[in-house]
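Support reply, case 0932

Customer input (verbatim):
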Amino acid sequence: QVQLVESGGGSVQAGDSLTLSCEASGAILKFRINRMAWYRQAPGDRRELVASRPREGTTFTYPDYVKGRFTASTDNAKNTLYLQMNDLEPTDTARYYCMIIAAPSLETFWGQGTQVTVSP
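Our regenerated output:
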């Protein structure tokens, strides 16, 4: 069963904004959530971190290449993790994945990804 589903991707122009969503469902909701994160992977490249909440009760942190433009948040009532992306750049073009690590098993869950394409 699909447990994490990303949505909200699309094709935009540089300077535009997008909000990505990652909705959790199924058995994952029965676990205590440890780490939450967003990653992205461009074609032919490795997966790279764009937002991370190390553990419950902490805040999200961001690498320099998205800091000030990307903001991650959660809506517990909707079981959803968000990634607000502002001032998008062509270098942001990638497939974006949400990731959750459950506790105490530390089992890792990934979504299928959602494509973001930013044109100049």
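We compared this against your earlier run and they match. Two observations from our side: Residues 9 and 34 are 25 Å apart (CA to CA). The beta strands are 4-7, 10-13, 18-24, 32-41, 47-53, 70-75, 80-85, 94-103, 108-110, 114-119. Please reopen the case if you see a mismatch on your end.
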